[in-house]
Amino acid sequence: MVSRGRDENQPLMTDYFDNADDSTMNPGPSDDESGRGASHPDAPLPANSQPKTTTTIHTTPAIDESEPASSGANARATSPLEVSDAASGISTPRFVQDESSWKRWKWVPYPVRRTCKVIAKWSKGPPDPQPYRIRPLFPRLQEFPLVLVQRFLPTKVRRFWVLFAFFSIWLITYVLVKRQGSVASEIVGWGEPEAIGCGVTYWGAGNSCGVDGNNCRPFNASGFPFRCAGNCESYHVLNPRAVGDQEVIYQPFVVGGNGTYRGDSFICGAAIHAGIVSNADGGCGVVQLVGEQAEFPSVSANGIDSVGFDSYFPLAYRFVPDLQCSARDMRWALLGISATFTGLLSLFTASPALFFFGNFIGIFWTVGTALDTPPHKSNAGLFSKILGKFLPAMFVAWVMYDKMGVRRTLKGLRAQSEKTILWLGPCWVGAMDNYTLSFIPIQRLNAHDLQQQPGAKAALAIIILVLLCVVVSQVWFFRKEGRLLKYLKLYALFIAGIVIALTLPGLDLRIHHYILALLLLPGTSMQTRPSLVYQGLLIGLFINGIARWNFDAVLQTPGELRGDAQLGTELPVINTPSIALANSTDMSSNITFIWEAPSKQKSFDGISILVNDVERFRSYFQDQVGREDEFIWSREKDLDMPEYFRFAYMDGSHSGDYTKAGIWTAEGEWQEMKPGPSKVKARNEDDDDEHVLKKRRRAL
């Protein structure tokens, strides 16, 4: 007899056969037909048997972590996709159950919903996220400054007094060097030079000098000693400005050369061109008016290409040669002082707050008072302007430090050399963007400038590609830290705000330095080496934007954003002029212009005419006395040079867009204007400086 106990060689179904009754073990008549007993595991089911319905999907789905696991002795193990219905005993596939939560999204195709769920699950990051921490390269070497501090300054009292002495020496040294840079030697016979801005000219913008330039007199027998700051070569006109039949843009406005310059040229730019002052260090000199001059040649000298003009202009100036004048812009010495002290502070402190706020304050004042100063009349005025910007900037600095990730990036970082190179270095690069990033052909980030500036679109495309690469890498790092979803929601709000701003009627969105920095800064809130570089650069851009330009409005009207660009106003229609050339009885030639009335009479009430970029005629349509319906211009028979005419409608004392130049040639022929408007105005950011120059000139 075979033992009932199972050994290693027993088949798996042995217990089943042992427990079966004798009738099951004895084959009946049906065995001959079926070949096996009715109770055999492979025997057909009886007709009255109701099978238990169970649906099982043999796939490998994602496990829903929100459901608790089964527990207890009676818990039945089921497939991850098998869900039993207690009432019917029917198991429901998990994906069918999940569809109940997507009822309101049934219009979205299932593959799209499935992809969204996969992305959402991926965005949550790993189950055990860990924050990134920088492990210093050569830790003993990088932490050596901290070891020195701990050894020689073990108490907080000692550290406080050392910091007090450190900042005091920094401040005193900076002030003394700044004062030295504001002192200039007196010029014999002229007195002490007066500081002027890089955009100062003798001739006002547009038609502000009035008919025949009477508001800008005298034209000769006048002059004054001046002093220019460094880097005035970078002061460019940002909208087209007319010179004869040319239009100058994105370069210093200097007309003429060989010692004589047209009166609307930038004085400091012309002084650099003439070699009177240095672009790097500035300098001083004396400028004298010489009245009407003709033939202003185009000359390339000292890094500036001047513009030529082949006709006459009522006001010109020259620089007095061979004068003894000593003045120097100390911006590079001030940069060296601040860079040294910020570097020492970075190396010898591990405190995130001391590192950030100490460097922020030092760089802010260095940029505002030395490297990229706003227009000012005196050092006292400059200090007042920077102080007014500094107080709100410090509040924003605290927000950036405490709420936008700077503290998280710098906390616990003991890689002193890497912090100095990767964070502080790019911060200086961003703060000095008028030098370091000036090669990028984008002056202002708006549609108008992108359309008219050569290379701006290509540069913007490259910048966007670089930003995309940076964003992809930062997204990966944020996912590894398990913080990606939080920041995706934040940037979704940013994007929604930008979209809303773009749709507001009557307002245009302008992304300034500081806005760009604030938008991108939260994306650097982690302690990785790339994040140190990005964060330092953005903080520097913020500093430059506020110290130089202040908290400019994000939403601006089209007029504010346009500045001195074309207004888009109606242009006058000028009939073909009649020309009477000089002969034996009449020694002068003349040309007569007649114009048509504007299509919208209520929009304009007069017309202005420029000859050689000087307003020579102004008439108002509704005047009963003194109204002129034609303009007659005469010139001498021996005038062997062309003259340039532009026309614009007037609204009160303000002119609309001027036409392009029509040319009365030296031979007496008329060349029609090309279609479209031109501009005669220059960038007006230094209006205060120009006003000072006029008052000073009149006093002389």
From TrEMBL:
Q: Which UniProt keywords apply?
A: Membrane, Transmembrane, Transmembrane helix
Highest taxon of the lineage: Eukaryota
User: Compositional bias of type Polar residues: which residue ranges?
Assistant: 68-77
Q: Where are the transmembrane segments?
A: 160-177, 332-362, 382-401, 421-442, 458-478, 490-512, 532-551
InterPro entries for this protein: CRISP-LCCL_domain, LCCL, LCCL_sf
Question: What is the official name of this protein in its record?
Answer: LCCL domain-containing protein
The LCCL domain, residue ranges: 253-307
Annotated region described as Disordered, given as residue ranges: 1-85, 672-700
* SMART domains named in the record: LCCL (SM00603)
Q: Cite a single Pfam family from the UniProt record.
A: LCCL
